[in-house]
Structures are given as structure tokens and as C-alpha cells.
Amino acid sequence: MNSLLSRQLRKAFNIESEERLITWLASLNTDNDGTTGLSITALKQGLALLIPRINESYDFHERDLKLRDRSLRLSSDELMSANHKIREENKQQQRVIETLRHSVNQLLVEQGKPPIDDDFTNLHELSSLILELINEQKRLEHKLKEEQAFHQSITDSIGEGIYAVDGNGKARFLNPTASKLLGWTLEELQQHRFHDTVHYQKEDGTLLARDNSPVNIATKKGEIYRSYEDVFTNKQGKMFPISIIAVPLLDKDGNPSGHVGVFNDISEQRANARKLQLAYEEAQKANKAKSEFLATVSHEIRTPMNAIIGLTHLALNTQDAATKHAYLEKVQGSSSSLLELINGILDFSKVEANKIDIVNESFSLSKLIEKLGPIFQVKAREKHLQLLFDIRCSPNTQCKGDSDKIYQVLVNLIGNAIKFTETGYVMLKVVRERRFVTFEVHDSGMGISEENKVKLFNAFEQADNTISRRYGGTGLGLTIGKRLVELMGGELTLESTVDSGSIFAFTLDLCEEDNPKDITNNAPLPVSISENVLCLTAGCEVELGVSVLHDALTRMGVTCSTIDMESEQLPQFAAQAMAFLPDNDRLWKRFLNLLRFGDFDHLNLRTIISPLSKLDVKKRMGKQYKESFNILELPFTDSELIPCISPSNESRATTNEQGLESKYWRRKRLGGKRALVVDDDLISLEISQQILIDHDMEVTTVTNGEQALELCQHVHFDVVLLDCFLPGIDGFEVAERLSQADHWFTPIIALSADESSKGRQRALIAGMCEHLVKPATPDEIVHAIDMHIHAGYKEVSTSHCDDPKLDRMLQFYNTYRQPTIMTKLLDLMTKEDINSTLLDDLLDDAIEIGATTLALSLKNILKGPSIKHLTFAERVSVMSMQLDTTFRLIAHSINMKHTTHVEGTYDKTSVSRLIDSIVELLKAYDAEAINQINQLANDMQDTEFSHNVSGIRQSVGIYDFDSALDAMLQLREDINHE
Amino acid sequence: MQSKSYSFNHLDELVAQKSSIVEFAPSLLIVYAAPSFFENDDLYGVLKALNVNFIGCSTAGEIVNKQVSNNSISLVAIRFETNAKVKIYTQRIDDMCTSFETGVALSSSIEKAELKGIYLLSPGLGVNGSALINGLSKHLPASIGVSGGLAGDNGDFNATYVLGPEGISSSNVVAVGFYGEHLQFGYGASGGWRSFGPARQITRAKENVLCELDDKPALDIYKHYLGEYAKDLPSIGLLFPFEKLSETGQPTGLIRTILGVEENDKTLILAGDVSEQQYLRLMHASSDDLIDGATVAVKIATSNYSAQDSHQLALITSCVGRKLVMGDRVEEEIEEVERFLPQDTAIAGFYSYGELCPFSDGAKCELHNQTLTIMLLREIL
User: Fold this and answer.
1) Which of A3, A67, A74 sits opposite B284 (nearest CB)?
2) Of B194, B225, B288, which has the smallest distance from its Cβ to A70's Cβ?
3) Alpha carbons A135 and A131: distance in angstroms, whole number
4) Which residues are registered as beta bridge partners of A436?
5) How far is residue A83 from each of residues A76, A90, B203, B224, measured CA to CA in Å?
6) Which chain B residues contact residue A60 at CB under 8 A?
7) Given an 8 Å threshold on Cβ–Cβ distance, is B291 in contact with A68?
8) Contact, A810 vs A890, CB < 8 A?
9) Looking at residue A799, what is its pLDDT?
């Protein structure tokens, strides 16, 4: 029985156990009445209980059914929708699987593996497979990327441009170098055809059609293209030549489609090639020129050489002494021209080999220029040329540079100008503009044609080969000059017109920029010069000279009016007058006539300027020459001009002749003294030597410090002239070692290019007693020696001399060498009193005895503040020193007079004859002159003129016949004067 | 072991039987009484005066022998005839959040030597029974069965009481430890509910608040299934509890009653925890089903009993929900239990707010809803 029903029955009829219930139920069928043990009432009550329970059960069952039904329905709905969803998902999954399989197959094929078949549907396996494949793909991609990066780094680092174009000619790749060379980025270039943007021009600038482009033609045919002829145009439109190798790219069918090009900008190589070509041509030309030069040189060398050999042969074979002598003379002439030639070649090779060092030292521009005058005067005079210096800057201008090289260039230029100018003038013009100094050498020569100008500066080439035949020379001078100017930072230029002259010019950075304040201080104006000067001239020959003079005077603040004495009326009065005369006999005659007739008396004519030498002027003037005339030779410089127009020159001119510091007395004081000159520069050495020999000193020269030290150990010298800058042991050290040696009392005088006070100090510290700045004038050098060579005082014992000049000096000595005077002078120093008559008296007396240095320092005191840099005390101290020196010089002069040995005598007539002969020989450049001069030296040994003769010997020794001739003429004059 | 059960309608009746109880010399007295008896200390005073071990709690219905009564006192006296003994442990629970900690504290205070089983009475309100049981198991050997229940107050949910040596309290948990090698326990639990419809996954829940099933508002699904019955919510919820399934969808035998609904956030308040990822399935029952459930429970509890002859005690804890469903017929489930037990078995117990019992011997103790649980105790000599 259903347990629920059983329970319900048991409850309803209060039957305790199931067994009894079964029994009771069974009894219900068998018993009709009463046997069940339940009363009707109990039965009824039981039924009443049972029925609601059963009802309740039914209700619950109904509810349960309803709920289950709903639940079922819900579940069914959910199931349906779930099924639908699953179906959809399944479909989707199928699609996904399809896609996955497709992808897998694609990947497999890409990786070169067999595809999977269609029944491979397991999503998971597919996924893992695809993951695996993707990883593989990633790995491959990574590898590819690495490889790409590697390739990229290669193409990036390649120094050549690389590009790629596709079949349509569009750029697909540019490496960085290509971008740089072309100026385009790949992105920019991708928009255009590579050809149309970059490669559309031919080398000559004409358009290159795409179809005609050899690169395209070749690569389309599948051929590799190589060329050095193509040009590319960059983004800026600039064309540049390229080298290119283009390799065709093949499409998948193996047909050419686009190409890869490797190119390089070969502008530089092209330029280099051009340069090489030019250099080659240059070298060819140079070689040709060298050959020509060699031909010239060999001609030049062979000619004298042949002469020498031939003549020597002849000389050896002749017995006649006169003929032999004549042969040998000619040999000598040939030898000297050979020497000149060889010197030139050596100079040139030095420049060519860049063996020239350019120094940077302070120097005085005016001194440099003043040195040039004497060198060319004679030559110019000989050719009747006017040599003019138009120096448009202050004589005090201080420069820094290599004065020797500038000098050398100017010597060459002026030398050339004189050599190649037949008539007219040669003018050196110097103009300073701020830091720059321009040197111009003008001439009125033959001029140089345009075509020859080019060749002019080339080594070994003269403007015209025939010139060397006519004028001699190797043509090296200009090349050397040009090189030197370039080494100094300038450029040698040439302006020239055929038949009317040339101007060689160069500009160098030599000066410090002037401080405006200094300009006034630098003004070179002497104290008192005439404000107006009348310039008398005649004819147009000296027009240029007159204008140079005019300009010079104007620069000094002097008004200069010019009158042509031939055609114009002379004025009634002039403060001062100068005569500027040409080398023209007729005009000279006229001038002398006027002079004789006193036409110039009221004009105060004081100066005569002409292209002639002083000697010639004196000669021409004859009796009309007065000592008071200043004779200026061409080229005159400001420093020569100033004394002429200053009023004080009169006394100086007269006193200097026999004054204390005249050459006369200096020779007396210095004659026979032994001097050692140390200088590595042979020119300086020569100059110094000549100056000293000129003062009768015995000169020994050495070119370095080692030699000097060695020599000084064995030989006694009275004075040493020492260049400070020597190779090896320098001058300072030499001086120091010498001055510290035992028993060394010899004064050492420094000669140095260093102008600074430091240099001076260094020299003094090293034990030198004087410091002269190069180039020092002869007067400076001699005065310095004169000042220092007479160690200690020589007391003057006599109170009277027979010689009036000497007597005057003695008076001076006795007057001022009083202790009271010295005290008064010291007093002046402290009081700064310049109004003392003592100073004026001293000045007058100093001028009178010719103590020019003392006079100058006195003037410095009296002039007061117009002299810069020196305080009053310093000026007095300088003056005292000069006074002291003056005393010493006087003492020595007087003592010298007393101890003068008996001079040698000579036969005046025979000497005069010999001199005349020598003069003629020298004029003819005849080497016989040397012999005769030797003879003369012998004849005049121990006479007062022996030094002059030895100077002349020196000159001819270096074949400077011109100087020798000058000196010889002077000697003749001096002897005649005697 | 001897046991004896009493039923009194008034405290006076108990007082009258005082001497008889003392004479019985019980090892332990267990008292189930209506809440009204706990409102003063009289009951406590009387029991205290007996000078024996006693525990007890307020109920939603007292069971003694075959009867279920309200507003009465049921008392069962146990006297061991061997060396078996009991120890009573009391642990105060502060609030629901500390339920687990309370269980842990209690279990650590319990002496483990010769411990055979635990009978636990807990307040029915302000306690998370699941957490309490989990905490209690923490320091107990797995072999120790725990049964008992949460005190009730006739379904009023106002105040529940637990009685122990320390007196009457609404927040004390009282545990009796049974010690003695001769003691033997049998456990059984069953609801008799039938599940229907598909199992749905808990996609959102927090402790005893169920928010979403299969990503849909739990209340919507619940109402959908109830259809026209949904209008009687929340009381009808007692008739349609949830069966709790594990994360893998396997039945756990645990039932979760719907105590209330939140219309606003469409959630259901359950009488016990649920966790996300677990599954729930709807249940329903009739009185007859529940009575059948009781039969199942007693059959499980007695399945290991071979010797039927020795005297034993059956302590029943059944759910207040069952009482509400069955109404007057509630005694029938007790009668069913009695029918399967030996004649002289003493039966006592109460209708609770949460039943504590393993499903069977050796199983883990669980908090049940809507279930009838049985603990059988006897001495084997």
C-alpha cells in the first residue's frame, strides 16, 4: 500500500501499525458488520478525518503538477533556446573551424608544409596548430625583421646612394646616403617618377627623355648598366655628376621590372680630375719654362764660361804680358757676371724650396726706405732716370713684419724698373692706410703687354725671351719677389700699359691701427721750419719730382708754391726757396746764370734738388757753390728734406764738417781700433763692416755666436757689434758669456730688430752697453762705438791747442767740466728750469764744436713737452750722459792729436794719375780696375786715405763697381782738396 | 545508559518532579522550552537547585516522545551507566561577524581526550550558523560528530535563549562534550524536499544574500518559477527553498530557505550562506514528502545500529519551516521517527532556527535548513 495512504488511514482510523491496518482493511471486505472493532461512529469520524487529508494530498499533487509542468515548460523553453544557441554556436564554430583551417593551410603553405585535410575539425587542435604556426610565423617574421634591420644597417651605412624603382619608375627605396645626396626623402619621392625628378637632365643641361635614358633602356632589357657620364639633379635643382651601377629587378615571371641603382656624387672626383688636368698642364708648362730657363741659364752660364775657358787658354798660351793681362781681365769680368747669375739661381731655389722664414719684428719704415736710396741712385743717375720716393706716411711709422724681405722685394722691383726703363722716372710710392702699407713701384718704361703679364711672374720666364738677351738676367727676381710678398700675406700686382710704364704694387698688413691720440704725437714736425717754401723749377722733365716734393712739404704743413724759372716771373721775396733742376745742361746753365746775377738773392735759395750727385752738382756750380747750400740728391726723403727747410741747419752744416762728431774726428779717434761684427745676415754684416772700415777701423766679421766666442778668446777687440738674434747661441748669451769673462772690458753694442724697451733691457742686462735698432744709420752705429770705445777718461793736460777747432773743443772742455757747472745742471734737473742761460750757452757751444748729439739732447730739454715718452728728468739725464760723452770725445780727440803717429806720405801726382785710370776702368766695368786699386792701396798705405782705398777694394771685391766708382771719385776730390 | 523524558506545561510541574529527577541522578539534563520560560531566571534557579549538569534553549516547538507541543517544557535526563561523562563549555558570541571566531574559540576550549561527540546549542538570532560550525570544526578531529541546533522563539524571530551552567543568555553558545569509550552515536539528516527544474549557477552572492543566478536577478527567476504563488512571497518562500549543489553541480543535501526578498535590488535573503560558482535548484514539498523525509533521516541514523536491544536516546532537531509547512500534522514526522526506533527509546528535541548535524555517521557536520536531524546516543557495555 502507498505509504501515504497507509499513514492517512492509520491516522484517520487510529490504527497503530501497518499490519493491523492491513488486517483491518482485509476485514472490511470479509466482515459486514462489527467485526472490525470499530464502531460506526468511529468509522464515520475516521472518514471525516481521512477525506480532508486525501483532499489535501490531491491539492498538493495538483500544485506539484502545476509547478512541475511550469518548471518543465521553463526548462523546455530554456532547453530550446539553449539548443538554438548551441546550434548557432555550432554553426559559428564550424565557420570558425573553416576559417581556422583555411588560415592554418595558408600558413602551412606559406611555410612550405602540406595542408591539413577537411576532416581536421578539432577546434582545440586547430587552435594549438595555428598558435604553433603563428609562433613559427612570428619567429620567421622576427628573423626577417632582424635580417631586414641588418640589411637596412648595411644600406644605411653604405657611403653610396642606393635607390630602387618599380616597374612604373616610382621610387620604392632610398638609403640615407641617397636621401642626402638627392635632398629628397623616400616619402616625397614616392609621389613622382624617379627619372622625372632626379634623372631628367643630361650633363649639358638638356632634357633626357625617360625612354631615352640609358639606365632605363639597359635595365628594361635586363642588362646591368654602368656609367660615369650620368647626372642627377637634387631637390634644390643642382645637377651633379654621378657614377652609377643599375641592376634590373625581375618580377615573378622573370621579366625586368624596375631596377636598383647604386650611385655616388663624383663632383669632387671630377673637380679633382679637372684640377689634375690643370695641374698637369701647369706642370707641362712649368716644365717647358724650366727647359727654357735651363736653356737660358745654360746659355747665360756657357757664354761667360766659354769666355773664361777660352780666355784662360789664350792667356796661358801667350807670352806677351800685356795681352795676357787683357785676357785675364776679361776672364774676371765673365767670372763676376757668372757669380751674379749663380747668386740669383741660389736665391730662387731657396724661395722655391720654401726655405724662407718670414720673421715678424718691429722696424722703422722710413729707415727701410732710406736704405734703398743709395743703392739705386748711381744706377739711376747713370741712365739719367729720376729716382723718386713718394713716401706718404710719417717717417716715425713703426711697423711689424719682415723688413729684410720687403727690402729685398723693393730692391728687386726698383732694380728691374731701372733696368727696363730707358727714360723718365722710377718712383717708389708708399701709402699707409690704417694697418696696411702699400708699396708701389712706378716706372715710365716699356710697359708689359697683357699676354706677357701672365708669364711675367712665372719662374724662368721673362716677358719676352729676347729681353734676357738684351738686358741679361734670368727673370728670377720677380718670381722671388712675388713669392716673398705672398709669404708675407700680400699679393704682388701689376698694372701696365705698353710704352707708357708699369706699376708693381703690393700691400702688407704691417702697422698697428693708430690710436687717434697717438696721431698727433707721432706728427714728425720739427720745431721750427719755414711755413712757406718756394720751389723753383725748370722744364717739365722734373714735373713728377716736383709734385712729390710739393706733396711732401704739404704733408709737413709747409706751403709750397712752384715757379718755372724759365717761363714765369720770379717773386720779389720768399722766406726760403728750393731749386728742383733736371739733368739738363741748358737748364742748369740758365739756373747758374740767374744765380750768378743774384736773381735768387732775395729768395733765400738754400736747397738744390736734382737727379745729379752732390759731386756733380758741386762741379756744375763750380765757384757758385756755397757751403750753405743743401744739395739733395734724388730720391730725397722727408728726413733729408726737413733739415733743409729748418733754420738751424745752417750752423750744423758749417760746424759738422770739422766738428767733434764729424767723420774727420771720428776717424781720428777710431782709426786702427779693432772691431768684431757678429751678424748672421750677410747684407747687414757687409753694411756694418763698410761703415766701420769707412772710419778706418779694423774689422773682423763672423756669422754666429760660437765663432764670436771662439775668436774672442784669442784675439783682442776694442768693440763688438753684436746682432742679438743669431742662430744657435743668440746674441744675448754671447754678450753674457763675454762680459762675465775675466779681463773683459770691451764694449759690446747690440744691434737688434727688436725695438721694444724689453729688448733693450734684455740687452743691457746681458752686459751690452748700447742697444741699436736695426737698421741703424751709420751715424748711430759710429756714434755708439765712439761713445763707448774710449774706456775711462783721459784727462786733458794741455790748455791750448794749435788747431783752432781743437782749441775750441778744449775751451768747451775746460768751461763745462767744472764741478760748479755740473752742480748747476743737477740743480736744473730738480727745478725743471729751462730758462737758465746755462742751457742756451751750452747749446750754442755744443753746436759750435759739433757735439751734435749733445746739442740734440739739449734741444730736447729746451723744446719741452713736444717730445713724447720722456720726462724732464729723463731728458736731463740723457743730456748729462751726452755731455759726459762729449767730454770724453774731446779728451780723446785732443790726446789723439798729441799722439798722432807720423802718417805715411804718398806721391800725389802718381796717385792722381792712378786714380784717374781706375775711375775710367770702373766706369767701363773693367776688371783691370781691381789690379789698379790694389796698386793704389799699396801706394797709399798708412796715409789718412788708406781706409778709403780699402773701402773701394771691398766694393770691387764684390764687383760693386758703381759704389767703388763713387768712392773713388770722392777720394779723388778729397785728395785734390788736401 | 538510562534516559527519561518529561513534559511540563508549567514550571511548577517541573518543581513538583524535582525529587524524582534528582533521584534519577542524571549525568545531564537537557531542557527545551518555550521562550517565555527564559524570560526570567526561575527555570535556571530550579535547574541549578537540582545540582546536576544541564543545558537548554528556547524553541519553536518542543518534542518529547511522540508529541510536539508549544509553550511547554520538555526535559530529558540522561544517566550514564559506565564511566562516560559530559563536560559543558560555554562561549559568548558577540555578533554575527565573529561567528567563525566563536566556533574556533569554543573548539579550542573543548578537551579532546576521549571525546566522542558534541551536542551544541546556539542562539538562533545574530549568529551565522554555517560560520560557527566551520569554526568549531577547526580544532576538532574529523571523527567527532557535532549535532544540535540554533534556538528558536516560535517563529517570532524576536529573542532566542540558550541555557547553561552560567545561566540564561541570548549570546552564549553552549556545547556538551560527551566522553567515554562506551558511548555510541548515530546521526541522520534528511529534508524530504523534491528538487525540480534546472540547476542554476550562483553568479553573484554575498554570504546569505543571493543576488544573481545565471547572470539574472535571483528574485526574477524565483518569481518566474512560482508563477501565481509568487504573490504570497515572502511567506511562501518556506515552501520553495533551494537545494544547494556543489561547484561541479553535485547535490550536497543542503537546503537553503528563503527568509525574505528585497524587491528593490531583486535579491533573496537565505537562511544560510551560499557561495558564487555553486549551483542552486528549486525545491518544493508537501507535508507528506516532509514526513517521508523524516523516515529517511531515521533510517540513516539507525543504519549502523546492530544491537537494537540496548536503551538509547534520540535527540531530534527539526526545522521551524517544516512545522509551518506541516501545521497540525507536524507530529506525524516524529511518529514516523518513533516508528523506526526501538520501543523504549527516549525521544526529545526541538523545532529550531537551524539544524546542526552530519548527514550520516562520520560525515562532516553541516548547518541544515528545512531538515530533520537525529542524533542517537547509547552506551554499549
Assistant:
1) A67
2) B225
3) 6
4) A433, A509
5) 10, 10, 22, 21
6) 286-288
7) no
8) yes
9) 66
Entry field: residues in chain B: 381
Task: Report how far residue A723's alpha carbon sits from residue A728's, in angstroms, rounded to the nearest whole number.
Answer: 12
Strands in A577-580's sheet, in edge-to-edge order, are A559-564, A532-537, A577-580, A605-610, A630-633
Q: What is the pLDDT of residues B245-287, one digit of tens each?
A: 988 888 887 888 887 888 999 999 888 888 898 999 988 888 8
Grid cell at residue A131: 598558435
Q: Does A4 touch chain B (CB under 8 A)?
A: yes
Chain B residue closest in CA terms to A7: B332
According to the model, what pLDDT value does residue A902 have?
A: 44
Yes or no, beta carbons of A7 and B332 under 8 Å apart: yes
User: What pLDDT digit, counting tens, does each position of B87-135 carry?
Assistant: 999 999 988 888 999 999 999 999 998 999 999 999 998 888 889 999 9
Q: Does B284 touch chain A (CB under 8 A)?
A: yes
Q: Is B286 within 8 Å of A57 when comparing Cβ atoms?
A: yes
Contacts of A550 (CB under 8 A, 6+ apart): A535, A560, A562
Asked if residue A22 has pLDDT above 60, the reply is yes
Residue B197 in contact with partner chain A when CB distance is under 8 A:
yes
Q: Is A572 exposed, middle or buried (0-12, 13-18, 19+ CB in 10 A)?
A: exposed
- Would you call B198 and A70 a contact, using CB atoms and an 8 Å cutoff? no
- Is B201 an interface residue toward A (CB < 8 Å)? no
Instruction: For residue B7, report the phi and psi dihedrals to the nearest 5 degrees.
Output: -140, 130
Q: Fill in the amino acid letter for A16.
A: E
Q: At what angle do helices A638-645 and A649-656 cross, to 10 degrees?
A: 100
d(CA B339, CA A11): 13
**The C-alpha cell of A185 is what?**
626623402
CA angle A938, A691, A808 (to 5 degrees): 95
Contact check, Cβ <8 Å, B227/A7: no
pTM above 0.80, yes or no: no
Containing A343, the helix (H) or strand (E) segment is: helix A321-352
Mean of all residue pLDDT scores within chain A: 80
Which residue of B lies nearest to A17 if distances are taken between CA atoms?
A: B339
Flag if B224 and A74 touch (Cβ within 8 Å): yes
Q: How many CB contacts within 8 angstroms connect chain A with chain B?
A: 40
Contacts of A749 (CB under 8 A, 6+ apart): A719, A720, A721, A722, A768, A769, A770, A771, A772, A781, A784, A785, A788
Instruction: Assess B141–A contact: CB distance below 8 Å, yes or no.
Output: no
**Least confident interval from A71-80, A150-159, A345-354, B14-23:** A345-354
Contact check, Cβ <8 Å, B197/A57:
no
Q: Are B281 and B199 in contact (CB under 8 A)?
A: yes
A64 and B286: CB-CB below 8 Å? yes
